[in-house]
Amino acid sequence: MAIKSLRLPLHGKLPVRLGLIAALVSLPILAVTTVFWRTASFRQFLRGNLRGLSLSREGRLRLAPRLRRVFHSQQAIIWSLAADARGDVYLGTGHAGRVYRLTPAELRSSTATPPARAVWFTAPQPEIFALAVGPDGALYAGSSPRGKIYRINSHGQASVYFNPHSRYIWSLVFSGSTLYAGTGDRGEIYKITGRNQGHKFFATRQAQVMTLAVAPDGDLLAGSSPGGLIFRITPAGRGFVLYNAPLEEIHQLAVSSSGAIYASAQGAAPAVMPGFESTPASLPALMPGGTVSVTVHASSGQPLHAPAVAAKKAAPAPALPAPAMPELSPAFSLAGMRSALYRISPDAGVDTVWSSRTQDADGLLPTAGGLLFSTDRRGRIYRLRAGGESTILAQTNQQETTRLLQVGHRIFATTANLGDLYRLGARRAASGTYISPVKDTGEISRWGQLRWRGQLAPGARIMLYTRSGNSPHPDLTWSLWAAAVLHQSILSPPARYIQWKAVLADGAAGKSPYLDEVEIPYLPTNLAPQIASFHVRVLHPQPAARVSPLMNQAEAGVVISPGTFLPPALRGKKGLLLRWQASDPDHDQLEYSIYFQAEGETGWTRLRRHYRLSMLRIGSSLLPDGVYRFKLVASDAPSNPPARAKTAVAVSRLATLDTTPPRIRLGRITFPQAGGAVVHFTAHDPISPLVRAWVSLDARPWRRLAADSGIMDSRRQSFTITLRHLAPGQHIVMLRVADTSGNRNAAKALVTVKH
């Protein structure tokens, strides 16, 4: 309970109100209280697994367009995707260099086409990064590494069309009847007008030309790596940089029907752009919203007639604003950035419409309903509308969705890790499932009533289930899924981990229900306190002042232990000091009970109750001298109801409480020779062994004295002090002894030496 403010009137029953405050303050603060696991935002839903559901930026789950796998290539990845005028779809794969063809009938069939029957071409090289369909209806495929461009006719007959003598062929695109090839690792673009008729068209001075596209006016667009440059190149071979992205690679380019250019970028920002000198004149700092032109060189090595550097501010364009998604940065920042999407409007304005620190954007597909793009995070497909609203439209649950393609009204997506082809339907799925991440409650917990918020269309249903277990990942030891019934506690057994599942089914009119929020209350088990240490120390009362240089500190007064802090109030006190360290995992307030047991006893007697300090001095006012064992009980009762309170117990070693100094008795005094004397003492302590003795003659500095037995290890000792060369007259001989508990006593003897 927290009281932020409380106003007291200056009149009325002030003592009663003050009493109320005291009562409120004295109430225990409950550390272990009900916790509510709430899933309601885009970021929170994103941690789970979607199947047949879409997720909007506002954090709303609804049924997604139907997503159906139509072909399994049995290859690891599908790199490239193309379609011809007949509706045939071609897939370029890795790592066996195969190209597959699927006809419209095969794409519509409910029976999957066997991969062996769909093989259209197999290259000698392992990777097919680029496919393009020419105006002649033939398929053109670029193989890598050290590959060639092949032409495959409508009968599946292949022949070498052009060899660029490059390590990689990353992209192919037709502009009219001319084929352009983007290559690596010299970053060159080839212009090919016929079989074996091609030349270097443009040198980007980058390592790789990753992607090519054709602008509405016929200019060629190219994206490079590692400089993250987007080039616009005229048919005459004159080029300039449209945009210098802060990321390393322009992965794919796409042009919308309105003429806007979309680019997906990946990777870290390079320190220096390869191929350009790092000077302000040749490598300007570009910002979104501006365009820069730089001098670049064609294959002839002659400079193009573009201005050397011309930075101009672009006018505001009706571009897609960056959505305010948790993982998507409205204001692009390089710190930890992994991927981004850019929109270059026809008037050259540049906007960052999406960015992420956790996933890479791959395929791009502008559509009438907005931009579709795919990522490598569970193979998601996003839709970004013109108003900035972003939605996870579908999820293949593959490692990566690599490419997107629209053929008529159908949209196809390819994946990696399993090289599959999916079709995204126009109609919604009949049902969809969301499985939450596993929630770790920290300890065994009891579940309350699951609550959800959303909307049901007529005939639609939302069904919720839970399961629980005590291992971090759901396995056979977990409980089965149990339906969550409204206004009833969750049926899953108490456990440390819990997971929930939602199943959405459409209504009679085909309208989707939607789910906005799910909340699971749980009460963690109260954890017992923990006692880290429990020690008993002897308090040594003697001060260390006024001692002989021949005596060390231990001889003057034994300390508790090296480095142990002794509060000033305990200095000079006799007895035992109980000291402990305890904590509570739930941060509960602790109280202590202390018990003692005398040597030889079997029961415990309580000494303190509801004690809040972490030390206690035991003196003669509490216990008589003797040998004791102590027990400490730590309880979190101040913060919990009696039925939930937990305790921890620690027992000390045997400790001797001795506050009585030793007794010293003077024995006989003899004078065996002139100027000499022998003095005898006996010392006895009823509790503790004697450990040290000192002698002083005529108030001179104290010196250590040995017992007659040669070792001080018992409670009774005798001492013989032999004095020589004494001057005539009276002398004072003093004996001081100390026991193991630090108690001391002294006695004196008067010795008279005659002339």
How is this structure best summarized?
4% of the residues lie in helices and 49% in strands. It is mostly beta strands and 755 residues long. 39% of the residues are buried.
Structure description:
The protein has 755 residues and is mainly β. Among the domains are: 111 residues; 178 residues, no CATH class; 128 residues, Sandwich (Immunoglobulin-like); 91 residues, Immunoglobulin-like (Sandwich), CATH 2.60.40.650. Helices cover 4% and strands 49% of the residues. The chain contains five helices and 56 strands. The chain has a 15-stranded antiparallel sheet that branches. Strands 44, 45, 47, 48 and 49 form a five-stranded antiparallel sheet that branches. A hairpin with a 3-residue loop joins strand 19 and strand 20. The longest helix has 13 residues. It starts with 13 loop residues before the first helix and ends with a strand. The N terminus is likely disordered.
Sheet with most strands? 15 strands, antiparallel
Name the average pLDDT: 85
Q: Which structural class do the helices and strands define?
A: mainly beta
The number of helices is 5
Helix content: under 10%
* Proportion of strand residues: over 45%
The end-to-end span amounts to 88 Å
Give the strand tally. 56
